Amino acid sequence: MNRIQKHSAEIERSLFAGVLIDPSMLDRVCELTTGAQFTHSVLGQAFDLVADRYAARLPVNDITVLVPEFRKAGILDALGGSAGLAKLATEAPTAAHVIYHAGEVNRLFRLRRIAALVSEVGDQVDDPAADPDELISKIEAKSIDVTAQGRDEVVSLSEMMIHLADKLDADRAQGTISGVPTGFESVDETTGGMFAGDSIVLAARTSIGKTAMGMQIAMNAATSGQVVLVLSLEMKELQLAQRIAAGQVGVSLVDQRTGNHTSQDSERIRDFARIHRETRLLIKPARRATVAQIGGYARSVKATSGLDLIVIDYLQLIGPRDRKPNRTEQVTEISNEIKTLATELDIPILSLAQLNRQGEGEEPKLSHLRESGAIEQDADGVWFLHRQRDSAETQFIIEKNRQGPRGVVPMIFDANRCEFHEPVITEHPSFHTEFEAYASS
Predict the structure, then answer these.
(1) Is the pTM here over 0.70, yes or no?
(2) Does the residue 188 lie in any domain?
């Protein structure tokens, strides 16, 4: 037993003795610690048993009442029996010290967690094949977890509902939806936007425009005031810049790539850059990055400037953490890790994904998600883009929506600008002029 463990055991014993003598202290003590933070697991079980009985308004201020309960739980002998409990009660600190000891149990628990992390990482650092980015990400993630152990608060039903009402009032006053907006009115009306902690998948077959849609959503969110991080595993930043210039500035991709552009086009791009100097759209080329590395990038951004949305292009290009021979197992692991990361960071993650060639030309189904059914299972939302290759008419299919209804939003794809938009009825290619009078009435 090292010094921290020895000191922890002494403090835990004093704390338990204190709540036996004065159970009313449990209201404040339970805000600071739980039995799970004790080094002595039996003492931790006993503490939780007493706390649970107190919360249920059952008597806990008499050892003779507790002895049968400890016996039933199978921990009486390990506590020293009735005599041991009676002796323990004589060691009780003053009421003021009980609160101090509760805080100390929490502090020492976190110190032990840090020591374990240092030991674990130290062992892995000795491995010549270790991945430094993965180790850094692991340290960051576990550090956040250790920090949270000292900050978690219990929120009452009343406080929780008042917080919700305040948020709804604020959203209504600003005329905004609850989640991060996609910028497409009908999509946002159906989904409410992209919610914190959600993993959302936007999938399409090749050359349908999933990167264009992903970048458009990222740009729309950023121009609405959100901080957006785009992880591009497929394209370099210049390629993404070309797409933004096509959609936002109107300099077509064809003109950019063939040299058929003017000095005025270049100046318009510079004007766009000046206007959006404060727009917080951050792009990180990240070929074959693992989810652990993506998490590291995201935590760094969140710590320095805040973070509201991550867009990953695209999911099946993410590198596996473990070199499993089975690709389905790799993608299953990646999908699960993305959902875990979204929950940890408390922001939505939009992952673009490739559909398989099964039923090519047909409307996509969840079973068409390439390489793993876990993608659909882990996702809070699954959106599909579908159109025939010779057509501009596109369906934005909300196939899965844990927050609300499913639906289909018609869109038009402008290949020249590499951009989607929701048509007004008279702009839709299927609109017939004889209906114009009805559309304007």
Answers:
(1) no
(2) yes
